[in-house]
């Protein structure tokens, strides 16, 4: 794919995981300027790409951050709205503060970043929002995360309708398990790592084998390439869609 030549792209949650993989993918495929957003300034600094880079360090749920981005970033050709946090625990035990923490980043933050993207995207631009299969498939212990990602899916669909008159496409990707640092905050996974005597890779493989027909989780690079497809001209007639990338988990 070479249709990102000369493009300016915005990526949130850019310092690690899927976001960092998307940054590398866009740079390899011709983007000339990347607007990167994350709370982790050190992680942003460690990204090595051969194109112009502008960093905004802050919380995606902070409206003041997005005022700065709108004032300074300039026009965009595409956007990857990926920032998110995870959580776990049954509803009966879930503190309201934890519920709000997850919704603030995953839903409020995605709304604010999407609002800015819709204002800055050139006609014919495209955006991909990182949702999750948890936004479509109910599992115990995923109330906050699943509800937030269901909201992300609906945001993508509404934005697709609103952007269509300008040729702007908006889609969502719904990964299942992906080998990223987000798992490290999930209590179930922490317990699994402990059961495997601290071996994170073994714990991840065991978890993937429990419910994923393909028997493995995706890599961040694989998901980034799928995001790239949705952003690209190869997906020119795809908008308002949810690409499920879960190794068969939701079957």
UniProtKB/TrEMBL annotation:
CDD domains: SDR_c (cd05233). It comes from the Bacteria. It holds the Pfam family adh_short_C2. GO terms for molecular function: oxidoreductase activity, acting on the CH-OH group of donors, NAD or NADP as acceptor. InterPro entries: KR_dom, NAD(P)-bd_dom_sf, Sc_DH/Rdtase_CS, SDR_fam. Residues 7-186 form the Ketoreductase domain. GO terms for biological process: fatty acid elongation. Coiled coil: none annotated. Belongs to the short-chain dehydrogenases/reductases (SDR) family. This is SDR family oxidoreductase. It comes from Croceibacterium soli.
